[in-house]
Design a protein that fits this description.
about 325 residues, D-Maltodextrin-Binding Protein, domain 2, 5-stranded mixed beta sheet, about 20% strand
């Protein structure tokens, strides 16, 4: 009996030592993130062990807005930032913030219903059916220089119009954009899923257009801070874990959309965002299967923001985009 007890004790002790040494063997990487569906690959990589397989323990640092993530990445408080591409981010880089955009984190893409322009029901009944019908009317966005501001300007230009043809109204938040439209305080605004489906079901507003069908756009990205860029082996290891996570997301959430892996992904996103799975299923954003950045779109964004006075100086995307980490990781993983 005593021998059995001693043996069991030794086995337990050995298991604990193995667990601790396994944990000690991982390098912690702090990642600044928002609780959004577009952060899905990072969530998946954490839960499926894709980062751990590369020797990395991801320590998520939660934020409520995009700009503080960029600041924290530049200061070294986090090694990786994951958020939207805004005029504020580009201005910060122009002013010397040392971060590099390295991989995809979400796009507006044809066939993916993520963001829409919604219209007040009274305006809809009066015949507002086309972007040109917004001339002289108010359009709600979150803030000047936001992704919504960029989308609006580009959509108008595609129709031979400009921002001067509408009245841009900064409303501060997605909830405010929704509320001002459904209470007839403003003619139109941007909205994202799952709020869009909710207002449509309640007949509180109408969808004028889905952004992805009219403007393919790199709306969000992952970027590295200077500290991680100087530790190239670690930076590449993180990228390998991220690419594997993107492949899992693409194959089982965007392509298949059924089966146990799909449900697993919805539950994983729900775990970190605290959104219900049926709402998440309505708003899974498009991402490249290998996490490849739509890099040519970055220059287009920089030029547009500069022309419209939202970025302080003319910049080349090469000043802030570094695909070398992604390319090396892909070379090691293979396609």
């Amino acid at each position: 009996m005593k021998r059995n007890i001693v043996l069991m004790g030794l086995i337990t002790f050995s298991f604990l030592i193995f667990s601790l040494t396994s944990s000690w063997g991982l390098t912690t990487v702090k990642v600044g993130v928002l609780r959004l569906s577009s952060t899905a690959p990072i969530f998946i990589g954490m839960d499926k062990g894709f980062f751990e397989a590369e020797g990395i323990k991801v320590d998520p640092v939660w934020f409520k807005a995009a700009q503080p993530i960029a600041v924290a990445t530049a200061s070294g408080d986090v090694e990786v930032g994951a958020t939207g591409l805004t005029a504020g981010l580009y201005n910060s880089i122009a002013q010397g913030m040392k971060i590099s955009i390295v991989a995809d984190k979400g796009r507006e893409w044809p066939g993916y219903k993520l963001t829409a322009i919604i219209v007040d029901t009274e305006q809809w009944k009066a015949g507002l059916r086309d972007l040109k019908d917004l001339k002289g009317k108010r359009v709600g966005i979150t803030q000047i220089g936001s992704t919504f501001h960029y989308i609006l300007g580009n959509l108008l230009e595609k129709r031979g119009m400009s921002l001067n043809d509408v009245k841009v109204v900064p409303l501060g938040s997605v909830a405010s954009m929704r509320d001002t439209v459904i209470t007839h305080q403003i003619e139109s605004a941007f909205l994202v899923q799952p709020f869009i489906t909710a207002v449509e079901l309640n007949q509180a507003a109408n969808v004028l257009l889905w952004v992805g069908d009219h403007l393919p756009y790199q709306i969000a990205a992952n970027f590295y801070g200077e500290k991680l860029m100087k530790n190239r082996p670690l930076a590449i290891s993180f990228m390998k874990g991220y690419i594997r996570s993107c492949r899992y997301y693409f194959d089982y959430a965007l392509t298949k959309r059924e089966g146990p892996q799909y449900l697993e992904i919805l539950n994983t996103i729900s775990k970190y965002t605290e959104e219900k799975t049926d709402a998440i299923a309505l708003a899974l954003p498009y991402m490249d299967r290998n996490g490849e950045l739509y890099s040519e779109d970055i220059q287009k964004q920089l030029d547009w923001y500069y022309r419209n006075g939202m970025v302080s100086k003319k910049m080349a995307s090469s000043e802030m985009v570094d695909l070398s980490f992604w390319k090396e990781a892909m070379g090691q993983l293979g396609k």
